[in-house]
Write a structure and sequence with these properties.
alpha/beta, Rossmann fold, six-stranded parallel sheet, globular
Length: 325
């Protein structure tokens, strides 16, 4: 059986994404062969490609995908040929039409979750679940700020936060993205390209600032996050879309009001099997109830991943992006 797969032999811009055709072996013990129907594009893919998160080369690319089990290796329990499943890693190599993956990384899909919704929502949705419910522990009445509120994670955050009773302020760059954020439930919009975010947030909160900031942008929004967070509030810095936040003296957190800051990652919150199962079940519940709707903003053929990366990094996308084998 042959497989078409993306390969990195060096790190750099989107142009370093190459492609190869390989003979796929039978699944090893503990693995399944997954024929993929949809692949999720995530900002972490650009970190692996660009070297922000170092990887051993040569390397596959991509974490998130959905599809159908085609073969099962020895020692695999709980999965059978024909099962619909999805994964968000941590093994890279999702940019492929078919591949072998550890069975331990798979989630079975409920009937009401399509493959495309799963590939668009699993990584971002589980990220949203742990950020809101287990990291920040947002409560009804909390005022929160969501940077890039019209992005893939941003739109899910806005909806989830509204479902738990928060007041949501979202930052966006354009009127089109403002419409998306408002439709997701954002109470207030800040246009970060033409407004001072921190000043506007303070105005909207009567000077108090927000209880929690969800910041997936990184360096470009760090000062705005500091200025927007109220006394003893929490900055959740969960991504580096602009660049990593570095060289920060802890004293700034004291000077800004005894602030807290967390730099969490998905895999630390989804390492325990019981937590994995509960987190995914919570995501499927939120989607099934209609409280969270997944927006697939754009799709690309699988081998147009280079262009998809360019568009993502140029902030020219909205919602979730899929690569289709």
């Amino acid at each position: 059986m042959q497989a078409r797969q993306a390969i990195l032999t060096r790190t750099g811009g989107p142009e370093v994404i190459g492609w190869q055709t390989v003979d796929l072996p039978a699944p090893a013990p503990g693995e399944v062969t997954l024929r993929q129907t949809a692949v999720g594009l995530n900002y972490i893919d650009t970190y692996h490609r660009g070297g922000v998160y170092p990887v051993d080369l040569p390397s596959g690319l991509g974490l998130e995908s959905a599809g159908v089990v085609e073969a099962v290796g020895d020692g695999v329990d709980g999965f059978a040929v024909g099962d619909r499943v999805a994964t968000f890693g941590p093994v890279r190599g999702a940019y492929a039409d078919i591949r072998n993956v550890p069975a331990s990384s798979l989630f079975k899909l409920p009937d009401h979750i399509t493959d495309q919704i799963a590939a668009a929502a699993l990584l971002k949705g589980c990220t949203t679940e742990f950020l809101v419910e287990r990291c920040a522990r947002v409560e009804p009445g909390h005022a929160v700020l969501v940077h890039a509120a019209a992005g893939g994670v941003g739109l899910l955050l806005v909806q989830w936060l509204k479902a738990v009773g928060a007041t949501v302020i979202g930052t966006v760059s354009s009127e089109d993205k403002a419409e998306l954020a408002r439709a997701a439930g954002a109470d207030h919009i800040v246009f970060y390209t033409r407004e001072d975010t921190a000043s506007r947030v303070r105005e909207l909160t009567g000077g108090a600032g927000v209880r929690v900031v969800f910041d997936g942008v990184g360096l470009d929004t760090w000062e705005a996050s500091l200025g927007s967070t109220g006394r003893r509030g929490l900055i959740v810095s969960y991504g580096n879309a602009s660049a990593p936040v570095t060289g920060i003296a802890l004293g700034v957190l004291a000077a800004r009001g005894s602030l807290f800051c967390s730099r969490p990652t998905l895999f630390d919150y989804y390492a325990d099997p019981a937590e994995r199962a509960a987190g995914a079940a919570r995501l499927w519940e939120m989607i099934g109830s209609g409280k969270v709707k997944v927006t697939i903003g754009q799709t690309y053929p699988l081998e147009q991943a280079e262009q998809a990366h360019r568009d993502l990094e140029a902030r020219a996308t909205s919602g979730s992006t899929l690569l289709l084998p």
